[in-house]
Amino acid sequence: MDLPKQLFYSTSARIGGSGLDAVAKETVRVAHHAGILGKALAFENRQNDVPAALIRSLERHPVRLISWFFGREFYYGAKKHALDKEAVRELKRGSFDLFHGWSGESVRSLRETKQRGIPSLIEIPTWHRHKGKSKPVRLTKSERERAETRGLEGFKNRFLITRQQMLEEYELADLILVLSEKAEETFLAAGVAKEKLFRHQRGVDVERFVPVEKAPEIFRAVFVGALIERKGVHHLLRAWHRLNLRDAELLLVGSVHEEIKPWLREFGGPTVKIAGFVSKVEECYQSAAVHLFPSSCEGSAKSTYEAAACGLPQITTRESGDVVIDRENGLIIPPEDSDAIAGALRQLHANRDLCLQLGAAGRRRVVENFTWEHFGRRLLEAYRVAMSRR
Question: Full-prediction pTM beyond 0.85?
């Protein structure tokens, strides 16, 4: 199977940074080094590996004004719609033979590629929109009411990303990139054919995220991510409060959202530390004895890659991705279960040798499977598969 000659990549993320911005950077870097990047479209360019001539930035696009007037909820949708419209213009101007976009921001682009006979793939950051549940394709009552709203609220609602738009994207794309076994299951449950799905895990910089020689004296548990209920932070706080472990500390690294503040007031205390956003997050992992990530819905949590690279045992859920294998490099627990979190914490607190054993296995697993070089090889293979769908 051949690679494309002129790839068009479109993302509402920045190219360069952390999280999805890092994924965007690695994607264009891999495509450029393979000699196949025709053009990338993004909202900002923060890297120097790929020539700026190949990247069109929408940094000064007027859609940014919406965040000042209507707030972030509407801005995020508006910028995705704006990106999609600009992507269509690029597709009409260029001579591309493969389109790579993201779910929730590509419906117009996918219609254009379908009309032009250009193969396409979209990346799914989390799960199928229905999250494995049975839902009608037709508009629900609340969706109809939102669509029929008039005036200012109706105008603002036009910026939102609809469920129907995302379902159409799944239908139009030739290949869908999913990040974990659990994510794949939600698409299969919705009737998407298995051959339309391609498993594409993330990567991690194993030279930046490295273990330290000496384990911390205190049993420090670290959580890295947005402090929100979807990531299980409230269950973690409840479990930690109940355990009252000796010589232990819980470090929460990430922005505190309003929904978590009541839980912090109730279950916080002197052993719960909030670091907020940290630029050198590797130092937080390296100061810890265990990483916790009890999320109920993720594509493939980047913190699980980073923690494993730093040699930490992990307590996490199957819903958080495929980095952790139960009893091999961490402990898998059910989501939304503070008792399970408490039991796993108690086990690792009592057995530091087990922590070291699981952590060493985690480091080996990412080095052997989840470096950015592995990411690049998987990405190019996905492009070959998509090209074969012509």
Answer: yes
